[in-house]
Task: inverse folding
DNA sequence: CATCCAAGCGGACTGTTGGTCCGCTTAATT
DNA sequence: AATTAAGCGGACCAACAGTCCGCTTGGATG
């Protein structure tokens, strides 16, 4: 394919946009971040943002994908318990712990991503990867359940608003404990 | 309090707005329904919509509250298994079945409501009522779990997009069966 | 029935935002 | 140095939530 390498200025701008978006998300809430602001903060024109990311949704998807790279590698080729080689129950718990960690460290991004992908949540590559991983583990541990459905339900635990709401009173330990208990109850024992 | 009764024209317009909203939701998808359209379809001015419902969110909340009245009565004062008088497990399953029914009959409304309440999901009176009901039943059946958290998770099964996605391949029976199985697994057999 | 007035009305108007367009600039290649 | 397509930026557009205010009217009063 004629996939020319990215031009130097394009690379510079792409990184500036991603960094600016993160910073704005951090500073203002998950809402209240318009693409005009992003463009201004990144020191580029609005057109540049849209040419590269296609849409608001695309921007947040790519940003989340970026933050999810490490987990993605860990579950496919990393060592146990995230990587293969342990019973599904342990592996699922390890994965959910990792996700909780990611969610807590990127709360604003998660919320913004949720809202931006409201329509086509089931098209987002990152979500799909997570979903298929969880589906596989559930199918293995509890073949009697509708693994796909349960996987969606489990991933719903990381909804930005829910995470914020739960940690707001109970802190991070409440979140991880609750998910832990929920998962064990689900998988039986 | 000086709560004058609603003026006749106000009543007429309120009903027209609610009916128009339902019809537009039905016809077009959950998105693609602007309040300008609603006002036009109802044959009233835009100001009238906002005076009565306050905001887009308010409109969808009130519409959902309307559709949820019957279930609300059934769980507080109705006969078992929705009303009191049976073990929590049965009562929870009956409630979730009723919700699934409601969701399936009002899919577009549910989606629109979800999106409109994205910010303050935990302020919506209808959601709160459902949540506290489910929380109570779970606390009774499984005192070892974080009932509030699990209740949020269970109610996430009725996310408009998830319902659409699941019923799209598997139909209504897949939805109810999956929820059924999930609940039983959670409550321990 | 005539009068009155506050509740109600409607639609023009505003501010914000996601997304588009197109003439100009520049990185990279020759 | 010349060439050219990839990239740029910001003016522009359309859609939408929400506000405002001068006009209308339901219904209460005498």
Result:
């Amino acid at each position: 394919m004629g996939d020319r390498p990215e031009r130097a200025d394009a690379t510079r701008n792409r990184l500036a946009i991603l960094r600016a978006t993160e910073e704005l998300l951090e500073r203002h809430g998950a809402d209240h971040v318009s693409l005009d602001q992003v463009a201004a903060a990144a020191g580029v024109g609005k057109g540049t943002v849209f040419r590269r990311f296609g849409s608001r949704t695309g921007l947040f998807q790519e940003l989340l994908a970026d933050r999810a790279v490490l987990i993605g590698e860990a579950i496919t080729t990393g060592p146990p318990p995230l990587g293969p080689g342990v019973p599904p129950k342990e592996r699922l718990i390890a994965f959910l712990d990792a996700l909780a960690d990611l969610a807590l460290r990127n709360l604003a991004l998660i919320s913004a991503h949720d809202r931006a992908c409201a329509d086509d949540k089931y098209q987002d590559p990152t979500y799909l990867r997570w979903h298929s991983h969880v589906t596989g583990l559930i199918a293995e541990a509890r073949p009697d359940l509708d693994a796909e459905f349960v996987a969606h339900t489990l991933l719903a635990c990381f909804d930005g608003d829910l995470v914020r709401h739960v940690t707001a009173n109970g802190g991070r330990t409440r979140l991880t404990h609750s998910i832990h208990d929920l998962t064990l109850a689900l998988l039986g024992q």
Summary: Chain B has ten helices and no strands. Chain B has a mean pLDDT of 95. Residues 4, 7, 9-10, 13, 39, 44-48, 51 of chain B lie near DNA strand C (CB under 10 Å from a C1').
